[in-house]
Amino acid sequence: MGKQLLLVLFVWLFLPGNNQPLAIPAAEKALVKQEDQVEAWMVEHLFSITEVMVTDVATPPGAARFYSYSLLAAYLVFQETQSTSRDPLLKNLNAPLPDLPSASYLDEVTFNRSFASIYAMLEVGKKLMPSGKRLEKSQEKLIDQFIKNRYLRKKALPANIRYAEEVASLVLKYAREDGYGYLSTLQRYSPSPGEGKWYPTPPAYLSAIDPEWRTIRPFFIKDAEAFTPDPPAEFSMEEGSSFYRQVHEVYEVTSALTEEQQLIANFWDCNPFNVSYSGHMAIGLKKISPGGHWMGITGIAALKAGLDLKSSIYIHTLVAMGLHDAFISCWDEKYRSDRIRPITVINKFIDQSWRPILQTPPFPEYTSGHSVISKTSAIILSSYFGDDFKFVDTSEVFFGLPERSFDSFLQASEEAAISRLYGGIHFRDAIEEGMKQGEAIAHYILSTIDIPKEILLTADQ
């Protein structure tokens, strides 16, 4: 509606000989304002879910799972029928969704899908995350926003909350069947004594995170092994070997970083396990997850493009599901190759005092998670918004880092990938093969869905 009104204004202003003001009905103006405001509220409340994840120190794969199910609930509220079997996004899911609850007790006047959608998103986050109860304040704020702005009548509130909770309940049941509840029953991971294998790294020497994540049900990809990358360079500190050259590349690059390279490394750090020490006290530093950063970029793009709420929730949900599947594939490879991190090799063979500018996250090195999920997200976003969609990434401003400008999503993904070399936490082949892995996953996902034409951006947008 906002884009259509702007187009009407543009055409009117440039009609030959026209010097009369265009009368825009008050109802039209109010509707445009409401759409923009509700979309901004959705992005705001999605960030409240991000804040809970930061508090809970959600793992990168775990955060993607939380985003996926929360946004899936929001997406389902906009379904016109109870069956999702023909929905362009959901029709080819690995595990079909059950029919939605009936909304027969809600008529067109009473039913506010925008409110119910955001409320359902928060409800799933509230029930799914360890500290999710914090989202009750967000739900109260959402109610206040809709009532105070007269977008929802008080007497219609209970029925809308009821439907939102019914949809959330369906999604939570669906989530309970994805294998997450069995992770703690699986055999614990123990570092291998073999040469070149992963071992806990300083400063915290944390145990390996999510070693059995490959057992989690993906949304689209049928088999994580279908996207297995080429194997990493064989461990060898013989001069001239591929691995030897890559180790020395990390050491040399990190020893001569430019100011810009340091800024890039820190901007894409996204390490929720970052720890600072004061004497014997360990202090966890709050940071967004890698998936959280790309959800932030999705929100920035949606707001810039002027999407309505339904369209925004669609692309947020698709990106979140892509993140979920990409992490499953990446983690499958991480614990198959079980590769050593640069800090372990460099400290042993080159320089015992060397430290990367980024703290090494607690899981094996190959492939680079940032490279995989960033490429997957960038291709999905480009398929929707276009290859040359410029944006200013403010995702890290809340966490004390400056904004960065990008000419495209792919440019951002490539910077995210190379940031891992500058940060001293990945070898080059993990970055390059990770990007190939993420690209293959994105193209597969896009081949399984039909992007609805009614929500595709047109050329003039």
User: For this structure, what is the CATH class of the largest domain?
Assistant: Mainly Alpha
The span between the termini is 12 Å
Overall strand count: 4
Please name the CATH topology of the largest domain. Vanadium-containing Chloroperoxidase, domain 2
Instruction: Name the structural class.
Output: mainly alpha
Name the poorly predicted regions. Answer: 1-29, 280-284, 453-461
Number of domains: 2
If strands are numbered along the chain, what order do they take across the biggest sheet? 1-2
The whole-angstrom Rg is: 24 Å
CATH architecture title of the largest domain: Orthogonal Bundle
* Percent of residues in β-strands: under 5%
- SSE order, one letter for each helix or strand: HHHHHHHHEEHHHHEEHH
Give a structural overview:
The protein is mostly helical. It folds into two domains: 25-181, Vanadium-containing Chloroperoxidase, domain 2 (Orthogonal Bundle), CATH 1.10.606.20; 241-455, Orthogonal Bundle (Vanadium-containing Chloroperoxidase, domain 2). The chain is built from 14 helices and four strands. It has helices at residues 2-13, 26-56, 60-77, 113-128, 136-148, 157-176, 242-254, 259-267, 290-305, 309-337, 342-349, 369-385, 409-422, 428-448, and strands at residues 275-278, 281-284, 391-393, 404-406. The strands form two sheets. Strands 1-2 form a two-stranded antiparallel ribbon. Strands 3-4 form a two-stranded antiparallel sheet. Helix 3 runs antiparallel to helix 4 (113-128), helix 10 (309-337) packs across helix 14 and helix 13 packs antiparallel against helix 14 (428-448). It starts with a helix and ends in a 13-residue tail after the last helix. Residues 1-29, 280-284 and 453-461 have low confidence and may be disordered.
